[in-house]
Amino acid sequence: MRRSSNAHHSPRRPGDLGDGLPGPVTLALATVLWLMLLWIPATTNADEAPAEVPDPLSLEQALGFAETHPRVTAAARNAVADGNSTDHNGAADATGTRSSPAMRFDLPRAQPLYLGCHSLAFSGARGNDAERDVSWSGLLGRVAAQRLEIMQRFFDVLLADLSFARDNEAMAVAFIQFDRAEARQELGQFSPLRTAELQADYQRIRRQRAASEAAQRVTRALLATALGHPTSLPRQLITPTLEPAQAEPPELDAIVATALENNPGLRALMQGRGGAEQALVRMAVRERALELLTRLELLDIIAEQTRSESDWRDLKLDESRTLYELEAQADLGFSMSQQTKARRDEREVAFCRALTRAELQALQGLIP
Question: What percent of the chain has pLDDT over 90?
Answer without folding.
Answer: 57
